[in-house]
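ingest -> fold -> write
write: protein_1
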Amino acid sequence: MLFVISSITILYASTSGHTEYVVSVLSNLLHKKESNISIEMLRCEQAKPEDLTRSDLLILASGTWNIGGVEGQLNPLLHTFLLKDSKNINLKEKPVCIIALGDDRYYYTSRASEHLRNFIQSNNGEVFGYPLTIINEPYGQEDRIEKWADKLISLIKE
C-alpha cells in the first residue's frame, strides 16, 4: 500500500544518545533524499499527546531497557509518555513506523519494538512497513539506516 506523505514526526526517547543518533541520521537522510517532506524530530519529554496525530506519518523510536529487574522494556521516558500521558489518544489509522534499539547481551534483545507495536495497535494506528532494528552500538550501522530510509521512501512515494 502506497501513501503520499508530506510530513513526518519522529518521536523518540534517548538517554545514552544512541536512539537520538539513529533518528538524526534517518532525518538527515530523508531530508536529503526527499527535501519536499517536512520532518520534525521531537523528544518525548517535550511532546504532547496531540503531537502523535499532527503529521501524515509518525515514527516512534526507543531503545530496549532492562529496568526494575525486568528485561525488554521501553525507555522509561517514552513508556510514561505513551502508556500514561497518551493512553487515550486515537491514532485514527495513522501509519506509524517503529525504530527499536537493543543489546545482544540480553534475552529480550530489542523488545521495544513489541511494546511500540502494541501501543500503535491498541490506539487505532496502522503499523507501517517493517521495524528498523539496531542491535548494539549504532555507530557504523549508518548503511542499515540508509537502506531502511530507502525502503520507507519507496513505500510513501506514488
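write: protein_2
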Amino acid sequence: MKTILTLILLGSSYIVNAAEPARELQIQNEQIIKPEIERRDIVIPKIDTENFEIGAFTGQYNMEDFGANSVTGFRVTYHITERAFIEGVFGSTEISDTTFRSILPGGLFPNEVEPLEYNYVIVGYNLFPGEFFPWEGVAWTSSFYVVAGAGNTTFVDQDHSTTILGGGFRILPKDWMAIHMDARRHSFESSITGTTKVISNLEITLGLSIYF
C-alpha cells in the first residue's frame, strides 16, 4: 500500500512538472504586446491630365546697346510628356534711342521710340521635377526646365531670324494653374548701330498660366 501511494505521488508530481512549461509558454504568449494599427482613409489626389497650357507674362527685355524696357506677351504650351513640352510665344516691347540722340542728330531710329515684336517656337525639358515649400505644411509641385528654339523678331520694319536659349522655374499652386519665372536670351543679327553683328538680348519675365 505504501509503495502504491508513493507511485501515485510521483506520478502526480511528474504531471504537474510537465504542465509547468506549457503554462509558462501560455503566460509569455499572453504578455506579448499586440499593436493596434489605426487604419487611415487615404485620399488619392486628382491629377490634372490636361496637356495644353495658356498664359501671359510680363517682365524686362534688355536690348543690347539700348537698355532694358518692359515687355509683355502670351504663350501657348503643349506638354508632350511629363518631361518634354513645346511652346509658342508672342511678345512685344518698345525700344528707345534717346541716349544716341544726344550724340547723333536725328538718332538711329526713324522715331525716338520704336516697337519691337517677336514670335517663336521652343522645345523644353523638365530637368528637376520636385516640390516647392512656400510655408510650413504646404507643398507645391515644381520643376526647373531648359528651353531652346527659333523664331522672328520685327524691329524698325525689319525681320530678324532669332534663336532662343534659356531656362525657367515653374510651380503649381493648383493642379490647373502654374507660375513661371523665366530667363531667355534672344540672339539675332542687326546693323541698327551701323555695324553688322549678332546681338544678344536678355529677357527676364514672370508669368501665370492655366491648364485646359
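write: annotation protein_2
The longest strand covers residues 113-132.
Residues 2-31 form the longest helix (30 residues).
pipeline exit 0
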